[in-house]
Design brief:
Layout: E1 18-32, H1 34-37, E2 45-47, E3 54-68, E4 78-89, E5 94-103, H2 106-114, E6 119-128, E7 133-139, E8 147-158, H3 162-168, E9 172-177, E10 180-187, E11 193-203, H4 205-208, E12 220-231, E13 235-236
InterPro entries: ADC_dom_sf, DUF2071
Organism: Nostocoides australiense Ben110
Pfam families: DUF2071
């Protein structure tokens, strides 16, 4: 049985092995056929679907205060952009799967790759204006070339629709590491997701990650100012 979508984690993290802040998130999504996503997921997981489709996400934000569970920040604050999919395992745990992750700081890229995540070191710039949040990324090393330039304008209105909850109320990630599929739980307080307008988008990260989505505008564009996050010990799938 697949677990329900809930605003807080159904699996509280008793002992955090990693803590971080996510700040100024621009969250974009496109529908995609599940059979196109399935080959990209770790063994033991399948695409999580809603109304017969699943989704590919492009999430641009600033990572801050990344450190071990006792809260010592050693990676500082840096931009990140990731392409992610939605998964469910045999125990019914919903999660996300990262196809690619761009980060502007080399040290966390190396640590992330050692943990089985497809991090790439990128040249990135993030600037804020009075009406939007701008983000830019272009890869420096490794993998297929990719770029992303986007701008969103957050609104005061809360995004409280079912699709937004389905996409953002996620309490773990599925990853393949050293031949094993793992589930890594996370938790954070309920966060405020706002509606947003997409002002600009020019990206090739989704196709570079091996995905094909409708070339039209994303079906969901939202923004979040940020939230502190705690990750627990990996568990086998």
């Amino acid at each position: 049985m697949i677990e329900p979508i809930t605003p807080t984690t159904p699996r509280p993290v008793r002992r955090a092995v990693l803590t971080q802040w996510w700040r100024d998130l621009a969250i974009l999504h496109w529908p995609v056929a599940p059979h196109l996503v399935a080959p990209l997921l770790p063994p033991g997981t399948t695409p999580d679907t809603r109304g017969g489709v699943t989704y590919a996400g492009l999430i641009a934000f600033e990572m801050d205060r990344v450190g071990p569970g006792f809260g010592v920040p050693f990676f500082g604050r840096f931009p990140e952009i990731n392409v992610r999919l939605y998964s469910v395992d045999g125990q019914g745990r919903r999660g996300v799967v990262f196809c690619s992750l761009e980060a502007a700081r080399l040290a966390p890229v190396m640590v992330g790759r050692a943990l089985g995540l497809n991090y790439r070191w990128a040249r990135m710039r993030m600037t804020r204006t009075s009406s939007g949040v701008w983000k830019h990324s272009s890869r420096r090393i490794g993998g297929s070339p990719g770029r992303c330039r986007l701008a969103v304008e957050p609104h005061d209105e809360v995004a409280d629709d079912d699709l937004t909850h389905w996409l953002t109320d996620r309490w773990g990630l599925h990853v393949r590491r050293v031949g094993r599929s793992l589930y890594v739980p996370n938790e954070h307080p309920p966060w405020r997701i706002q509606t947003a307008s997409l002002l600009e988008l020019d990206e090739t990260l989704i196709t570079a990650a091996g995905l094909s989505v409708d070339s039209g505008a994303p079906v969901s564009v939202v923004y979040a100012s940020g939230v502190p996050v705690r990750f627990g010990m990996p568990r086998p799938v």
